[in-house]
Design brief:
Blueprint lengths: L1 E3 L4 H11 L6 E3 L17 H16 L3 E10 L20 H12 L6 E11 L5 E12 L15 E3 L11 H7 L1 H16 L1
Helix pairs in contact: 4-5
Amino acid sequence: MFIAATQNQHKLKEIKEILIPLGMDVISVHEAGLGNVEIVEDGDTFEENSMKKAETIMKLSGRNAIADDSGLSVDDLGGQPGVYSARFSGENATDKDNNKKLLTMMEGIKNRSAKFVSVISLCFTDGRKISVRGECMGKIGYEEKGNNGFGYDPLFIVDGYDKTFGELESDVKNKISHRANALKKLREELEKMR
């Protein structure tokens, strides 16, 4: 069993849906009795933030922990919003606020290529650590489309699908997303450890 180091219910749901077929049981920090754990994401990379979250939860709980740090990286914005994706337009920003800011910054930009990045880290109570990175390529649309998903999903048009993550059904997204790609790599790493 792993404790997921996230307060984001959407992210927790995606992680659970993807890991269940691997036989991995994941519970939230609330289900583990840890309450609200605030972890300052002060790393410069997704890797640093992901590992910090997993290590913190593992130390607090004394149990194996899994963490994901993910976000959107837009080529012509120098990789922004990057590690600041969730708080791009301020500390208490909503998804709508962040999407609006991104669209404003993208005005007049022709190259709209972008990628979603997910780094998943595992910390085991025996000291082992795993960190994997998954990416999903696409581009930023000109308006929000679709009501599925969360965050930048209604703006991110996935390469090869001509639809935003917000328009794709969750079972399709969960096979092709940055998080799904990271979890595939994670499965390979876990199999090596057996």
